[in-house]
Model the fold of this input.
Amino acid sequence: MTLRDLIPRRAKVAHADLVHRWHWRRSPIARITRAFVAHHGLEVQGGPFAGMTYPRFAVERGELVVAQLLGSYEREIAPAIQRAVDRRFEQYVDIGASDGYYAVGFAHSVPSSTVRAYEMNPFPARVCRALAAANGADGPLELLGECRIEDLRALPDDRSSFVLCDTEGAEATLMDPEAVPLLHSASLVVELHAFAVPHVEQLIVDRFSSTHEIEIVRTEPRYIGQFPALMEVPGVTYIDRQVGVSEFRPYPMAWAVMEPRIT
Done:
């Protein structure tokens, strides 16, 4: 047993949180985040989850708070996400939920649904819980840990379902309709991490082409002039604003947007 083993878990979490916030306050995103929140507040302004409210707890802990508050976050798939909200699925499954933007967004927008969110990292999971509480979405939202293929197999497949998958390459394992019956009839948006699994786009297309209509959606550039609310923020530079809508992706990304064929 080491000295570290004797430290209570709560103290370890508190220390890690302090370290994270210390680094965040010195990061390029900090100034535009503070300025945006001071000027516009903590309500999401656009996109499929407009009206959702962020807790103050999320400001220094959330992933890309300015983009999420603007509603510009992953705007390439926003039409697919809006359709998923409008269709009011009975079950939403968010694999790789991170800080809860989508999971809580679905639970808040469709409170009659069941939302199962999988997130193995406890730090963004804390933000997800706080976001759910701030929006009264604790009821429909079930926040789980790591997602394994046996977890997906166990999900009910007798109800209308939407699956969102963002798993840094694990989609190559998890998004297998032969192993997971639910996927045959679910609507899906799967982020394709080609930097982790180079052949993943073709793999997913091959697996779903017989059952789904598939659209590959690719990342697009963001220009600050497209976001009037961002341009209104005082006391920040052009570079600050550009940082606010940047998503810091290591590689050109794509998503497979898939709708089951009517049989």
